[in-house]
Amino acid sequence: MIKKNNLIGKRVENELNLHKTHPGLRVDKPPFPQNLIIDLCNGCNHECLFCMNRLMTRKVKRMSFNFYKKVLKEAKKLGVKELGLYATGEPFMHTKLEEFVLLAKEMGFSYVYTTTNGALVDEKRLKKVIDCGLDSIKFSVNAGSRKTYKTIHGKDEWEKVCKNINFVSNYRDNQNLDIKLSISSVVTNLTFHEKEDLRKKFENIVDEIFFSECDYQQGQMLANEAIVNTIDHSYQVCNLPFYRAHISSEGFLTMCCVDYQNYLATADLNKTSLLEAWHSDLFVDMRRRHIDNSLEGTLCFNCLNSCNSKIMPLNKSLAHAIDFKEFYNASKEEMQITIQERKNI
Ligand SMILES: C[S@@+](CC[C@H](N)C(=O)[O-])C[C@H]1O[C@@H](n2cnc3c(N)ncnc32)[C@H](O)[C@@H]1O
Ligand code: SF4
Questions:
Q1: How far is residue 263's CA from residue 58's CA, in Å, rounded to a whole number?
Q2: 51 CA distance to ligand 1 middle (Å)
Q3: How far is residue 215 CA from its own chain's centroid?
Q4: First and final CA of the chain: distance in angstroms?
Q5: How many alpha carbons lie under 13 Å from residue 127 in its C-beta half-sphere?
Q6: Which ligand is nearest to the CA of 93?
Q7: Residues with Cβ within 6 A of ligand 1?
Q8: Is 117 in the pocket of ligand 2 (CB under 6 A)?
Q9: Which of 51, 88, 121 is the pocket-test mutation for ligand 2 (most atoms within 8 Å of CB)?
Q10: Do the Cβ atoms of 7 and 207 come closer than 8 Å?
Q11: How far is CA 133 from the centre of its chain?
Q12: What is the rounded CA–CA span in Å between residue 242 and residue 234?
């Protein structure tokens, strides 16, 4: 196996530094990006402590194949090369994931990747999605033991996930496939002591194990204060609205990959084209506000400042508005109860 080390780390670093390396992209009407993220289904089978998915009030929706096909045709014409099939939910919750991958590869997208908790699938399904041409699969394993995994993910599926990772590794070796296989793990103060266990268990069979800090998910999961020591606030600039496009499971163009309530949805792609939406007045205005650092009243403000000031959705008709202050208080309480409950089981 030829290991493809530190690709995720480099990718994250490149994204964070884009405003320095490519200042020309930080304009209100940038060209359509080469990277597109599509959330095929926003529902999830797991309930990770730190993830807003378990608390979101947005309805679960699976993207239709016809809509996906329409968007891919537009994306291809616009020069998109990389397609990420995941965002706020679990991609394997969509029973057609394999067909979506196959279409993307048949249409010539050069890099089709996904991120999964890996617990819904069996070997047959994994084999199928790999055979359809998936270029990269990342398993999210947010602990290093069965017990802690259950506390974090809320499901006792450590063994199943480990077996699935082993299967992908053996399958690609036996078939001599070029698919990238990696693991990411969100570190909290409940799990940092298990980093080495996770590393030892998988370092010889995956390309990369990427540990990331647990964040507040755009200021939506401030309740994560209970499970992290400090969060690095040095990250003051967001490049996402300039270089990457995101489509929600409902078919909305949104500015961010963790927009659980669609507060940053700018247009309905069932009604408008991808390019029109990318250059819509609302999106252009938000990019100007990013450039001028005047984001008060938006989710972006709470994200960049890790706070819960009063915010409004950009487009009320596309969002599921909630009272974030109320939500924050309730989620803080809920977090304490859930941790205790999960530790006691
Ligand atoms: C929201 S999940 C969706 C895809 C899939 N369900 C999974 O878990 O891989 C995408 C990634 O976000 C990460 N994530 C979720 N909550 C996070 C948080 N509070 N801080 C950092 N990463 C987080 C997950 O661990 C996962 O790798
Ligand atoms: S991190 Fe992924 S697996 Fe965990 S709850 Fe969120 S969406 Fe589900």
A1: 11
A2: 7
A3: 13
A4: 40
A5: 8
A6: 1
A7: 44, 50-51, 53, 86, 88, 90, 115-117, 140, 142, 184, 186, 212, 214-215, 217, 221, 224
A8: yes
A9: 51
A10: yes
A11: 21
A12: 20
Report the alpha-carbon distance of residue 143 to residue 323 in Å, rounded: 32
Closest residue by Cα to residue 52 from 345, 241, 302, 341 = 302
What's the mean per-residue pLDDT of the chain? 94
Q: Which atom of ligand 1 is nearest to the CA of 87?
A: 3
Residue with tokens 């496009």: 245
Greater confidence (31 vs 19) lies with 31
Cα distances from 67 to residues 64, 186, 273, in angstroms, run: 5, 33, 12
Whether residue 238 is predicted with pLDDT greater than 90 in this model: the reply is yes
CB 256 within 8 A of CB 306: no
The three-state DSSP-derived secondary structure of 82-106 is EEECCCCCCHHHCCCHHHHHHHHHH
| DSSP summary character for residue 31 | P
More reliable by pLDDT, 173 or 305: 173
